[in-house]
Design goal:
Blueprint lengths: L1 H13 L5 H15 L4 H16 L7 H19 L9 H14 L4 H18 L23 H20 L4
Helix pairs in contact: 1-2, 2-3, 3-4, 4-5, 5-6, 5-7, 6-7
Length: 172
């Protein structure tokens, strides 16, 4: 993931003037090519779907972000055939998205805070689960007692979204 996101930073630095949606599409393609295992294709798909959702707009708000994150989750679910309770990235992303939707009336920063908290709780909730999908499913009962890495990294993604909103909208 570190090498993949280092490559994404290079792509973003070179993509002067592209709209956010196109940047996400390019970042997603970079992750698919650069990150092995399940993380590259899952996060790459998520970013590409979010980028397609945003389209060519130069600026977007909370409603568009929520729709983009919904489309990102749909891409993850389609690719991985996972659902909540399978001990995957979905166990963190789905509750975060619900919290974001439920909190939209409170403003971007508060809604993204609620999403981050829900993502963290979702990630922690994977610890006692037995993995039913993904690479961890090969471990069977040995997967119990370990937090799912995709769910954990998703909580980091939602924390970054919250920080970005706080930096961009400090008075909201």
């Amino acid at each position: 993931m570190d090498r993949g996101f280092a490559a994404v930073v290079t792509v973003v630095d070179a993509a002067d003037g592209l709209p956010p949606g196109e940047l996400l599409v390019q970042a997603g393609a970079t992750l698919v090519l650069r990150v092995g295992g399940a993380a590259g294709p899952l996060y790459g798909t998520a970013l590409r779907e979010a980028g397609r959702s945003l389209g060519e707009v130069g600026v977007f708000g909370l409603l568009e972000l929520t729709d983009a994150l919904h489309d990102a989750l749909s891409g993850i679910v389609k690719l991985g055939a996972a659902e909540e309770g399978d001990k995957t990235i979905v166990d963190s992303w789905a509750p975060a998205l619900r919290a974001l939707r439920d909190g939209r009336s409170t403003g971007a920063v508060a809604a993204l805070h609620a999403a981050r908290v829900a993502a963290e709780k979702g990630a922690v909730a994977t610890t006692p689960m037995e993995a039913r999908k993904g690479r961890a499913s090969y471990l069977g009962p040995r997967s119990v007692g370990h937090q799912d890495p995709g769910a954990a990294s998703t909580s980091l993604l939602f924390a970054a979204l919250q920080r970005a909103a706080e930096d961009a909208l400090p008075d909201r």
